[in-house]
Amino acid sequence: MASAQGADAAAALTGVDAYERQEVLGRGTMGCVFLVRRRTDGLLLALKTVVIASSKDRELALNEIHILRALDHPHIVRFVDSFVADEELCIAMDYCAGGDLTELLNRQRAASKRLPEVEVRSMLAQLSSALAHVHARRIVHRDIKSSNIFLRAAPAAGGPSAVTGMPVSGGGRHHLMLGDFGVAKALESTKAMACTQCGTPYYLPPEVCNGAPYDVKADLWSLGVLAYELIALRYPFTGQTLPQLIMRIIGGKYTPLPSSVSGELRLLVTTLLQQRPQFRTSAEALLLVRAADECH
User: Which residues does ATP bind (predicted)?
Assistant: First the structure.
């Protein structure tokens, strides 16, 4: 009887009272991310808190909630709950115990060890699937980068995903989750173009560097930069200063991937790092190519 009453009391909790903080996962300029345990069932979640210091901060946080609610995909961080507490907007979402892709790449760099191609292909297939889902809903992520991609705890090679119970795409070990939709933008129509500048410098597409309008193809350029980084453990475009980096991105010349990399992956990077957005392949097309390869 007592346990039933306790369960009922936990179920009645809302807002911040529904969660028990465990530890700090990260801190940013706008707030923190905490590991929390949901009192009703003990589920571990990530709780992102955003200090509402201005109407702009509130707009960005509410935008992320709106975007996350519209998405339901095994490779996109799942929205769970949102509420306001002590002038902070709180967003509860999936907790990814494996950290982020930046941490994984830093470990590979420290060991001077590249990721196996089967792993790179699996990761790119997962991200292509996530982006196809996002773009089909006329949403541009606008900040594709390694630190915004999270890892579930890796199963054994070829083992099932911790999320779906199905084998991870392409036989890889890591189940990736695309997250941080704080600066994502929902386009009014499939022909709409965005004009505000967002993103991280190394991953910026040339049209954004030029201050030109852009659409979902901007995410594909950033995916191309990430693909290069996964393969080579370095960025395709670098510079001593931001203006120098921007000029190199606009110039479009980068060190070719070594011949030891398969022709398939080198071609994929080339098709994504096209200066003209209309020549970049789409996320959906990448999936079709991947499916065709797996049939042969």
Answer: 48
Give dist(CA 76, CA 19) in Å, integer: 22
Q: Tokens 């967003």: give the residue.
A: 91
The CA distances from residue 5 to 10, 161, 183, 263, in Å, are 9, 36, 42, 63
Do the beta carbons of residue 155 and residue 173 sit within 8 Å? yes
CA distance 204 to 112: 26
**pTM (predicted TM-score):** 0.81
Report the alpha-carbon distance of residue 249 to residue 247 in Å, rounded.
Answer: 5
Task: List the one residue out of 89, 75, 60, 98 whose CA is nearest residue 181.
Answer: 60
Q: Are 122 and 103 in contact (CB under 8 A)?
A: no
Residue 113 annotated as lining a ligand binding site: no
- pLDDT tens, 39-87? 999 999 999 887 777 777 777 777 777 877 888 999 999 888 888 877 7
Amino acid identity of 166? M
The CATH architecture annotation of domain 101-295 reads Orthogonal Bundle (1.10)
Determine if residue 206 is left, alpha or beta; phi over 0 gives left, psi from -120 to 50 gives alpha, anything else beta.
alpha
Answer whether 247's CB lies under 8 Å from 239's CB. yes
**What residue ranges do the domains of the chain occupy?**
12-94, 101-295
What CATH fold (topology level) applies to the domain 12-94?
Answer: Phosphorylase Kinase; domain 1 (3.30.200)
Structure tokens at 265: 């992956």
pLDDT at 154: 53
Of the candidates 121, 122, 104, the one whose C-alpha atom is nearest the C-alpha of residue 113 is 104
CA-based R_g, the chain, Å: 20
Please spell the DSSP secondary structure of 260-287, one letter per residue. Answer: TS-HHHHHHHHHHS-SSGGGSPPHHHHH
